[in-house]
Specification:
Thrombin, subunit H; 12 strands; 3 helices; six-stranded antiparallel beta barrel; single chain
Length: about 190
């Protein structure tokens, strides 16, 4: 009798733990988790004049950042700043795909907190999402919405969202309710 009770408690514990691992987390928890993983990017010309503003997010602890190609396009220098006050610059572009409007760049920042990358193949229309960006340079601004549509054009998948994305938020992560990045804001 004791062993059956023990087995039942073990099964219930596993079920509760499994639900906890895959459970949705609140927007506040996501923001707390990723506030320093999202950075403001200021792009300068050869005269050190600002020509564009965008967002990016760290994909590893070495300071590599994902953003949009168009955010850095035409610039000669790019500065990066996190919400916790770390400042640096983009040192080099590691990978760039103008067609996808996506690039990965190495920054001078180290010991960064990366986002968790999710699987965009598992998303569904109507699913809740949030975006953390820097509209008009206002660091760490959060907006939420849903996935309004999934558009396939050729070999590319575009996620249409209802969360407001303003100038300066291009390159920000689109995060699902489990805290995984499932896309990048591009336009």
């Amino acid at each position: 009798m004791v062993s059956i009770r023990k087995l039942a408690l073990t099964v219930i514990s596993i079920l509760l733990l499994t639900d906890y691992v895959y459970a949705d987390i609140t927007v506040s928890q996501i923001v707390k988790q990723y506030s320093t993983s999202v950075a403001k990017i200021v792009v300068l010309d050869e005269k050190d004049q600002q020509i564009s503003l965008g967002s990016g997010f760290f994909i590893n602890e070495n300071g590599d950042v994902a953003t949009n190609h168009h955010v850095l396009e035409g610039g000669t220098k790019a500065l990066i700043k996190t919400t916790d006050g770390k400042e640096g610059e983009i040192l080099e572009i590691i990978n760039d795909d103008p067609g996808l409007d996506l690039l990965i760049a190495k920054t001078s920042l180290k010991s960064t907190i990366p986002v968790v990358l999710g699987d965009s193949d598992t998303i569904t229309i109507g699913q809740e999402i949030i975006a953390i960006g820097n509209p008009a340079g206002l660091e760490g601004t959060v907006s939420n919405g849903i996935i309004g549509g999934i558009r396939n054009e050729g070999n590319f998948k575009y996620i249409q969202i209802t969360a407001p994305i303003s100038q300066g938020s291009s390159g920000c992560p689109i995060i699902d309710k489990t805290g995984n990045v499932i896309g990048i804001a591009t336009s």
